[in-house]
Amino acid sequence: MAKPVATRGFARERVLDAALDLFAAHGVSGTSLQMIADRLGVTKAAVYYQFHSKDEIALAVVKPVYDDIEHLLRITETLPTAEARRSVSMSGMVELIIRHRRVSSVFYGDPTVHHLLETNDEYRRIGDRLADVLLGPAPDNSTRVAISMLSAGVHGCVNDPMIADLDDAELQKILLDFTKRFLEVCVPAQ
Amino acid sequence: MAKPVATRGFARERVLDAALDLFAAHGVSGTSLQMIADRLGVTKAAVYYQFHSKDEIALAVVKPVYDDIEHLLRITETLPTAEARRSVSMSGMVELIIRHRRVSSVFYGDPTVHHLLETNDEYRRIGDRLADVLLGPAPDNSTRVAISMLSAGVHGCVNDPMIADLDDAELQKILLDFTKRFLEVCVPAQ
């Protein structure tokens, strides 16, 4: 009985890998189930056996990222001050985005993916919890802009082709340093 | 003889406006010439009369942004120090991105648009000149990360739906302040 399950798991991973390559090259909107099947050298029916829609594939591709964000939140939400919650969450997000460098390049900034994530209850709740720890209670406009700018800056930089020659360790070191300094000078403690 | 030209100019603007709306909602990949025609209530042939491909429309949509970047560069490239060139260019870019808020939300971060802009000689040259003034001569990795992070941060924040309630003037004031502080603490003068 073990073999079909193993094969199925393997096929699932292969579909997700192929999908991620295609999403990165063409965006989610520009990728079809047929393209995924063609890349794997299988029929569209074989892909349907694993996933019932492209949306389901896109959600499965980002699942490990959301699992890690949830894990980070379970740690940071217990911290005693808003500043500690914010700075530990932001540092954790820097590490997490670099760890998921390939996936984050696809799911960040794509309007189709954004809509998909927003309409998924589980992911939206995690996104809301992340916003809560990063923004803190009753954030003013300046704090909101700072967190938005910093989040976009980290995501965008990690996915910038001009920075692709930097290895993950060096990029992480520099980004963690900049993130800390930015919070210090732009988001005063409450 | 004046009327056909005026009509043509009017139709051109209408196509660009409709295209921008659709690009914003579906991405460039997810938008077809047929969708643009449908939105305008005209035939695809009527759109073809103005533009020969979707790429041509996308390039025309971003043209005013590149015209403004070129104008900014003509000013900043004459400044005497690398620090002045960098900080004036970055402040100018903040203003420019806010001025072109709608267009920048479409052309930033979309892999299709990125490819299109990279393969257009005129736009690529302007992009290279902008990178030169922002990075300065022989930038180290830290400076490269800082400029990438700051550029992505400003673009991403301006297009962040969570920030959409801030008016342009307030957003610009806060972003100019953060940009200045970030450069001060993260990009030491050479």
UniProtKB/TrEMBL annotation, chains A, B:
Keyword set, alphabetical order: DNA-binding, Transcription, Transcription regulation
Pfam families: TetR_N
GO molecular function per UniProt: DNA-binding transcription factor activity; transcription cis-regulatory region binding
Record bears the keyword Transcription: yes
Nucleotide-binding as UniProt keyword: no
Top-level taxon in the UniProt lineage: Bacteria
DNA-binding region: 32-51
HTH tetR-type domain boundaries: 9-69
PANTHER family (alphabetical): HTH-TYPE TRANSCRIPTIONAL REGULATOR BETI, HTH-TYPE TRANSCRIPTIONAL REGULATOR RUTR
Protein name: TetR family transcriptional regulator
